[in-house]
Amino acid sequence: MYSIEEAYKHCENVISHHSITFYKAFSMLPKSERNAVWAVYSFCRKVDDIVDEGSNPEVELAQFKVEFDLFLKGTYDAVNPSWIALEDVFKRYEMNERAFHDLIRGQEMDLTINRYETLDELLNYSYHVASTVGLMLLPILAPGKTDVLEEGGVSLGLAMQLTNILRDISEDLERDRIYLPREIMKRHGVTEGSLRAGIVDASFIDMWEEIAGHAEYYYGEAFKTMKEYPLSSRIPVKGAAYLYRAILPTIRSKEYTVFGQKHYVEDETKKEIVVGLSSLC
């Protein structure tokens, strides 16, 4: 049996292992909010791992949905540290249950859909797998401000997911997933064959930049309302956004070589962003 402190520590270990960018950004939060973010991330990570690494993801995800429904009714595995921590979060904050359900729905989409025809279809998917995370965190990061911050939170999730897609083209191809909308690929003369061949030419760059433009737009929309966050959470939220947005110029600086490698923002750039946060807020 885990104590609350041990349960939160388990969740912290999950995020520190899987997402150093988010871990660094949200480590700046006060302890109570920080722990709550770790617990929500652990939930999200579990759903993601079922889909990407599960031996029978359809069955495992269906089982997890049942577990979550029981959790909402007050019944859960009392020796599972993730549920212990999340139960404490639900006690302390007015959590958005729909966002949790929508995240699971987004992961279900990954089990049945591996190509997207239009940008609108991709944005719908991105809402479900990324914007939902922001909606989960809003009651923790900005209690009483969820209504005014909801639209910006959704925009930030869209921006980050589009950034993920532009960074992870090669990795997604290995899973036979192409998130780049066919309508945009076709407009620029990019084919599935050219993606699999790892061709980075003017056509590929133009396509990549069109999608990057949409990501930049949503980052801009997200920044419009960030002043509404309490200062204690405004800094880490802005930090995560700036750190993630920096992936785009990093890829440009590497001449769009997204095939066969995964680009990360260099530590020096991360330090500059973090140091500059006080003036940005």
Automatic annotation (TrEMBL):
<dbReference type="InterPro" id="IPR002060">
    <property type="entry name" value="Squ/phyt_synthse"/>
</dbReference>
<dbReference type="InterPro" id="IPR033904">
    <property type="entry name" value="Trans_IPPS_HH"/>
</dbReference>
<keyword id="KW-0808">Transferase</keyword>
<dbReference type="InterPro" id="IPR044843">
    <property type="entry name" value="Trans_IPPS_bact-type"/>
</dbReference>
<dbReference type="GO" id="GO:0016740">
    <property type="term" value="F:transferase activity"/>
</dbReference>
<dbReference type="InterPro" id="IPR008949">
    <property type="entry name" value="Isoprenoid_synthase_dom_sf"/>
</dbReference>
<dbReference type="Pfam" id="PF00494">
    <property type="entry name" value="SQS_PSY"/>
</dbReference>
<protein>
    <submittedName>
        <fullName>Phytoene/squalene synthase family protein</fullName>
        <ecNumber>2.5.1.-</ecNumber>
    </submittedName>
</protein>
<comment type="pathway">
    <text>Carotenoid biosynthesis.</text>
</comment>
<keyword id="KW-0125">Carotenoid biosynthesis</keyword>
<dbReference type="InterPro" id="IPR019845">
    <property type="entry name" value="Squalene/phytoene_synthase_CS"/>
</dbReference>
